[in-house]
Amino acid sequence: MKLSRSTLRSQNSISYYRTTINRFYGTTTSAKQDKDERGEWVYTRISPLGSPEVSMVPVLEQWVKEGNQVLRSELQWIIKRLRSYKRYKHALEVSHWMTDRRYFSLQPADVATRIDLMYKVKGLEEVEEYFNSTPQKLKRLTVYTSLLNCYTSEKSAEKAEALMQKLRDMGFAKGTLCYNLMLNLYSKTGRWDEMDNLMNEMEQKGINFDEFTFTIRLTAYAAAGDSDGVDKIVAMMESDKHRILQWGTYSIAADMCLRVGQVEKALAMLNKLEGMILTGEKSNGAYNSLLKLYGEAGKKEEVHRVCNLYKQEKKILNKGYISVMSSLVKFGDTEGVEKIFEEWEAEALSYDFRVPDVLIGTYCRNGLLEKAKALVDKGMSKGGVPWVTTWCHLANGYIHEDLIPEAVEALKKAISLCPPNYRPSRETLVTCVQYWENQGNVDKAEDFVRSLETEHMFSAVFRDKLLRFIKEEKLQT
């Protein structure tokens, strides 16, 4: 059974889980070290070097040349900060400089951190070479767990399972983290039976499930459309007096119920989620989830009610405005979307083009291309940078107005910004390809299709279908 990508992507449990992993094998520093003024001062020198292509070594060398001392704890703190901002290449550079130029000996936590950074920057092959060259005395649980995380992130089941067995044999498989990594792997690959076997093993060994164990299993049940499984996990979590439920639990459960058409059960879960907000931490993420899910449940009045409650309790940020606008779009309430957008503009938050994108898409779908173009121009005049979705919306708008050359140019801009695995609509792609084919430029159409595959905008299978379409003028579904 296929995983529901949107179900997995939307869950906060995985972000909690990643945080725990980072804490486990990340560089550890004391509260005093976190506040170290010298470490902060060094960081202020290197932090402006935003481009990954700009080396940090000259700045670090200059700092030392000026007679400043650099402590291990300061460098560990800098690495930690850089990782938190996803500046992995720079963090890896500092890690190497710490040992290669300052001659600090590596500790297991340093090795674990470096493995994680190397995977993100250079890939699994170099990670394995580094791990194999690491002295055995440094290969503690943190290091093995970091390597296991690489394997599970890569979805390399055979290597992950072999390493997990090694951890068992060495007596290291005693905590939840390595089991959670494997559970997450099996969840992502749809191996439900293996998840059950692993959880049974944990029970037999007396390893208590933590919130991540439960939430990974809950997410998997949701992805598989297993309503009974979701109910079982939620009941287990609710009955555990030693565990504080996260609002994400009810969010996942409600999302799953909506996907299988169980609206009343979903609303019951959302009622519990809202109760947690009212009695506990008033999380922006929880409010955003409520807005999204009430919209999907078709409850417009609840969307407005939660939005008003949100305004009373919290400062709504960009993601919150996106959530309420996206929900109102589902009801065809263009005027309502425009009103919320005006409220966002009045707040003068950082100009995140994803907010106007909701309205731009609405305009383009409803034949209001000129309003969409004006909104794009307005956003750019305020310093906003259009997203790939902005240009895809405009491409669709141009197509609906039969302005195919303009649609092709908009899609070219989308391609230049395209993140991995993003896919414009099939209609947009086929129309643009057909435009070149009608112009008699088959070679250009074929080059265009190949450029889309290079940008990972679709699979090789769909590429072949488009190329056949160019030659046969018939797209097979």
Automatic annotation (TrEMBL):
Start and stop residues of the PPR repeats: 175-209
Keyword Repeat appears in the UniProt entry: yes
GO cellular component: mitochondrion
Ranges that cross the membrane: none
Repeat listed as a keyword: yes
UniProt GO molecular function: mRNA binding
Coiled-coil stretches noted in the UniProt entry, renumbered to this chain: none
UniProt keyword list: Repeat, TPR repeat
TPR repeat positions: 388-421
Protein family (similarity comment): Belongs to the PPR family. P subfamily.
Cross-referenced PANTHER family: OS12G0527900 PROTEIN, PENTACOTRIPEPTIDE-REPEAT REGION OF PRORP DOMAIN-CONTAINING PROTEIN
Name the record gives this protein: Pentatricopeptide repeat-containing protein At2g20710, mitochondrial-like
GN (gene name): LOC104228362
